[in-house]
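Figure S7 source data.
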Amino acid sequence: MLIKKDPTIIQSYLEDSSNLKGGHTERVVIPQTIDEVSSVLKEADTKRVPVTVSGAGTGQAGGRVPFGGIVLSTEKLSAIKEIRKFDKGGYVVLEAGVLIKDLKEACEQKELFYTYDPTEQTAFVGGAIATNASGARSFRYGPTRQYVKGIRVALADGSILLLKRGEVKAKGRILGFEASGKRYKINLPAYKMPDTKNSAGYYAKDDMDLVDLFVGQEGTLGVIVEAELGLIDRPKEIFSAFAFFKDESSAWSFAKDSRLARPLSIEYFDVNCLKLLGERDHNVPDSAKAAIFFEDEITETEDAVMAKWEKLLSKHGVSLDNTWVAMNEKTHREFLDKRHFIPETMSEMAKRSGFPKVSTDLATPKEKLRDMLEFYKNSLEKNALRHFVFGHIGDAHLHVNMLPADQKEYEKCKNLQLEFVKKSLSLGGTVSAEHGIGKSKKGFLKLLYGEKGINEMIEVKKTLDRNLILGRGNVFDT
Ligand SMILES: Cc1cc2nc3c(=O)[nH]c(=O)nc-3n(C[C@H](O)[C@H](O)[C@H](O)COP(=O)(O)OP(=O)(O)OC[C@H]3O[C@@H](n4cnc5c(N)ncnc54)[C@H](O)[C@@H]3O)c2cc1C
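Tokens for the predicted flavin-adenine dinucleotide complex:
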């Protein structure tokens, strides 16, 4: 086991991609085996020392930023133990600290495919499970949750729980199980989760699987040390395109119709994103007010897929001649690079400005998306703030990023962010679709589930982590 105390070395463990400041820890422990994870937790639990679990630190909600106690990093638990292909699909058993990009490469070699496809490929598998991460292609494939077939979790007292999906199911909202000779009875929260893509708070449903409680728990219920993930066959060749629209409304309508064509992803970019891209790619049409990037699988012929999209585009006033189309792997990769360039540049701009960007991760039911988009547009225009709206329009899940220039604007952005959250809730939406609550969105979670829902989550936590040592300050205040 490695232990780091040198302030210059542990500095990088005190932050993530959220810009949350003030993190501090007495030491970072880096177990090399699951037994070591267990003994670190046992000792911390006995001494009541808070433990913050650290993945790769790409999280957007401050979840791995510690405020006291120790940091337990999963970086050395990085073995891919088994990867198997069946006639259809397959599975992989791996440790929590495997990088998403390494998992993808390992799958590629077996002609298999792991569906989570975030912009940021340096996240760990454990971090993705702990936040129920999703991304662009979750439009077709769904979020991380549904691929978690099994999980090995170290509980706060150091005991190890090995779970296979299907083995432990709740009866209604009561989950009973045994681990290391101890009996647990968990009263699950009574709330109804939003009917959208969702990463906000604990998963709670009648008759749910115990595995699902540990997916999206953000390091508050246990340390995920190993997982078995379902894999699918590698998609066939991919057709992708950037379509440009003369107004936002046409882009929104195109996105709605595109859902029926079941592509892999449908991603939206507003005019400000296009201006940003235009600084690098001079062929972005000047007249474009919005764009949709989409990826589809070529299941029949190239001509058939082209004809399908040409028809859909022309219905919304767009010709294929003005659309960027990738028919080969090289151009497709260039398109992905353009798609990634936009959020990355935004984050760099925010860093340079000295003021954190204020962003949202809201999803609404699909039939309410247009209301939400109009609300974004009107509010952002009225407030004249520098902003970018982009993301997973196929899942009715867009990120609004506001870049304040000074303290006064920062406060204005925060107020607007709260208004967006309230609007999303009024439409039946969620307060976090993929990033999780972490430390920065706890107030929003309270708006979603109320004091009662929060208290019910705390009761769940107390059953599994009596001394409240894990992930302190994440999801709710303890
Ligand atoms: C440029 C960029 C693009 C992104 N794009 C996407 C996207 O498309 N979709 C998406 O969903 N997210 C996206 N993210 C967010 C982020 O990449 C994901 O949330 C990712 O899954 C976090 O993984 P991590 O290993 O970095 O976790 P960390 O940031 O280290 O931790 C995240 C949370 O999980 C907990 N945790 C980590 N590992 C474990 C474990 N083994 N056991 C228990 N708890 C644990 C931590 O305590 C913390 O609360 C993006 C981030 C960036 C910077």
